[in-house]
Amino acid sequence: MGNVAGKKILTLAISLLAVLTLLLQPCAAARPVPGTATIIDGRRSLHLPLRGSLLRGPESVAFDGDGAGPYSGVSDGRVLKWNGLARRWSTYAYGPGYNAKACTASRTRPAEVTESTCGRPLGLRFHYESGNLYIADAYKGLMRVGPGGGEAKVLVAEADGAPLRFTNGVDIDQVTGEVFFTDSSMNYQRSQHERVTTTGDSTGRLMKYNPKTNSVTVLQSGITYPNGLAISADRTHLVVALTGPCKMMRYWIKGPKAGTSEPLADLPGYPDNVRADLKGGFWVALHREKMELSFGPDDHLLAMRINANGQVVQVMRGSKSVRPTEVVEREVGKLYIVTLSY
């Protein structure tokens, strides 16, 4: 599979967490990894641990227009900001109704109980020109907080008369300011994410929010577990991770195919978030491989880099204890791995 590539990897993790599991169900056959694909060793990493009592997370990270961060959402409903090794993490934003006392999990009141009220930030993206941070909160919907943070405002809680039940991924067209986001299921909430996979639920939606008109448009419905998404470098299409089917989908937003979607890639595992890389392609985090065994060598796929045509050009491998939700490439040679456990 090629030579092992040396890269500096920063890992965001929380200590002593239970892994969020995806129950296996059959996926389409994965496209073989080309023999030219290089391998990154995910074990060669530095850690930025989110230390806290019973905090869970992160799911996604964002960097602001000045390059500060990362920012990350956690299970008590807050978005935190990394301020360097000296100051570490601080609260940046939170949703309406957040209360520190009521939203802090305990052994008798775990995060799974509090998050439906306090919120659970998943996808995060900054609009660089305005400084606004858009937050895909699994329970509250699409939210936005202005420069400097504070209490976020809910922008979208329903679309076409149907409430958002599992708001998940988000990305922004930095030129137009349009915000694209996913609702993974119209039947199940984030706390029931296993059922989205095991039932083959196909009620997910891909949507667009226009900040100039404060309007939301459903671009496509009837999607099977749409999760993370990313806009292409040329701003002509979106790439959407479909977790249950182990696939990547391309949705065209410009050009002769605008308004249509097509398969982009079959994957050998369950994808979570997808982020644009620095070469016109995308990094796809794999929560686990399709046929992964709990025994045997402590090694599995963590993520894959695909090019604009959906071909695998690079893979990352590491310990089975690492369950990535996102891989972010900030500069050549530096990757951020977001993981719910380490």
From TrEMBL:
Chief localization: other
Pfam families for this protein: Str_synth
Location of the Strictosidine synthase conserved region domain: 168-256
Domain of life: Eukaryota
Similarity-based family: Belongs to the strictosidine synthase family.
Leader sequence residues: 1-29
Protein location: Vacuole
Record carries keyword Signal: yes
Protein name: Strictosidine synthase conserved region domain-containing protein
Gene3D superfamilies: TolB, C-terminal domain (2.120.10.30)
InterPro entries linked: 6-blade_b-propeller_TolB-like, Strictosidine_synth_cons-reg
GO annotations of cellular component type: endomembrane system; vacuole
High-level lineage: Eukaryota, Viridiplantae, Streptophyta, Embryophyta, Tracheophyta
UniProt keyword list: Glycoprotein, Signal, Vacuole
Presence of the UniProt keyword Aminoacyl-tRNA synthetase in the record: no
GO molecular function terms listed in the Swiss-Prot or TrEMBL record: hydrolase activity
Coiled coil regions in record: none
